[in-house]
Amino acid sequence: MIRALTIGGSAGSFHTITGILKSIPESFNIPVFLCLHRLKQIRTGFVETLGVNSKIPLLEPDDKTMIQNGVAYLAPANYHMMIEKDYSISLAIDEPIHHSRPSIDLCFSSAADTYGDQLAGILLSGANIDGTRGMIELRKNKSFCVIQDPSDCEIQTMCYSALQQTKPEKLLTSEQIIEFVSLLNNTE
Q: Which residue ranges form the domains of the chain, and what is each CATH number?
């Protein structure tokens, strides 16, 4: 059973992210962790723009925010976001990883360590290799892995790199990912 969803993306992922947020039903009762590369100097507007499309609350968490089901958490600009064992979110300003802060690798790895085989992770379009190490950690923790088909990406580098290092359960187009997430819910 999936108890949490984590999604990472960079350049070219905005269309898919907005589609995912539009497709998630109000009854969605698992947390969603969004780790998206964005300009660090722009601190406002992004969460509001994405939130307009979301039927579930979309928040930029503070350090030590306790995780709630049915909420999407967007990594704040220029902060690493990690998922802790006590089901809280921690933020850090440690050095960028692969020129990125937030780091998809850190977000995915910490979520996999916390949720294990009850986590689904999705890697979307992007221009660097951030996310590859995170996908490897998801696989090691038996999390359910989805990678966007590089032929469907606006920028293939991120997904292509991950595919060179690990094999996901699903390789999907943007539209298939949106459908996959819309059907993903925690049903007892």
A: 4-183 (3.40.50.180)
